[in-house]
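## retry 2 of 3
previous attempt timed out at serialization; input unchanged, resubmitting
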Amino acid sequence: MKRSGYSTWTPEEDALLGKLTDEEISRRLGYSLRRIRRRRRRLGVFNPNPHHRHWTKEEIALLGTATDREVAALVNRSVGNVRLKRIELKIPFCNPRYECWSEEQLKLLGQIPDEEAARQNRALTHQCSRGASQTTHQGSTAVTVQL
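## retry succeeded, writing output
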């Protein structure tokens, strides 16, 4: 059944979540996969996808220790999947091509000329590592300077 415009989920439609694959529900109801996945996650319903692989402790331990691309190759997952998991767990990214500024360094921005802030911060800047104090992009300020 093809739907147009906005409509709310019925209890019968909600009952399909977790019993059929998202793709099958999409075909049956005419809803986009994105809408179905969003609803399933909002209700906390398990993903019935037989190809879905849970993250192991060993895989999670690798997040933030190398670039997302490198970790993805090591754990046989997509770069997007690795990035989303890392952000979900609030693990800072690691990329040796970027410098991560501390809160102290960020406070200099707008207070003095940019060139002077860059000169002062160059001595204080640390490379990204799992223990570095930096923020994620969701709702926080993350400033990186490409080397």
